[in-house]
Amino acid sequence: MSHSSVSPEPAGGGRPSGRRPDELRPVTIQTGFTRYAEGSVLISMGATQVLCNASVLDRVPSFLKGKGQGWVTAEYGMLPRSTHTRSDREAARGKQSGRTQEIQRLIGRSLRAVFDLEALGERTLHLDCDVIQADGGTRCASITGAWVAAALAVRRLREGGELERDPLLDHVAAVSVGVVGDRAVLDLDYIEDSGCGADVNVVMTGAGHYVEVQGTAEGQTFDRQALVQLLDLAESGIARLVAEQKRALGSLQ
């Protein structure tokens, strides 16, 4: 395992996609994608597409009954041909891989970080994130899209007079960064993700506070300076994703 020292400036080209090192893939957030969910979004980040549905359930887990607060939770899955080869439907077989469980817990933690659960009342907001097509960054796209779906569901509850105050405290979004060759890059696609020297997933609020940082050396270690550069890239990318979330909701203030 080698040690990584990344290029000091995230500028220039040389990525397989032709993007600059500090450039996001094209992002689209289509709201109201399905008919029945209280909040529904199809988010696309490059070729990665995730359908995020938010359902409002008039119940809470048993450990919260009678405590006057709600819950936000998530499920995550990949459709059988979302990747190059067909995979089995885990839920239909009554089992989930460790990766699937880890990702859906991450989505739930990320959304709860920006929710006032008492303001939500004794109800559950359930986010279903289904990967339609995977080209890297599916967990990050899921978090970014799930927040918009959750915001739409909350908007419906408020318009219906079911909430006394807004339970959403802030935005939350996520992006991947990594070391490819000797360069720090933003928003890895599959080709970069499968061959990068280091891979870091970053979840942040709209105010710029960290929710979670998942960093792994993939063949070469990296030092503190490289990590700071990666976090700076992630922060700039997440600011742009939050702007896209606001645009999707029609509130650019």
TrEMBL record:
Annotated phosphate binding sites: R99, G137, T138, R139
Transmembrane segments: none
CDD domains linked to this entry: RNase_PH_bact
Top-level enzyme category: transferase
Database matches in Gene3D superfamilies: GHMP Kinase, N-terminal domain
SUPFAM superfamilies associated with the record: Ribonuclease PH domain 2-like, Ribosomal protein S5 domain 2-like
UniProt entry tagged with the keyword Transcription regulation: no
Region (Disordered): 1-25
Enzyme Commission code: 2.7.7.56
Keyword Transmembrane attached: no
Catalysed reactions listed for this entry: tRNA(n+1) + phosphate = tRNA(n) + a ribonucleoside 5'-diphosphate
Domain Exoribonuclease phosphorolytic: 23-151, 172-236
UniProt keywords, alphabetically: Nucleotidyltransferase, RNA-binding, rRNA processing, Transferase, tRNA processing, tRNA-binding
Function: Phosphorolytic 3'-5' exoribonuclease that plays an important role in tRNA 3'-end maturation. Removes nucleotide residues following the 3'-CCA terminus of tRNAs; can also add nucleotides to the ends of RNA molecules by using nucleoside diphosphates as substrates, but this may not be physiologically important. Probably plays a role in initiation of 16S rRNA degradation (leading to ribosome degradation) during starvation.
Recorded family membership: Belongs to the RNase PH family.
Subunit description: Homohexameric ring arranged as a trimer of dimers.
Matching HAMAP family: RNase_PH (MF_00564)
Protein name: Ribonuclease PH
Gene name of the encoded protein: rph
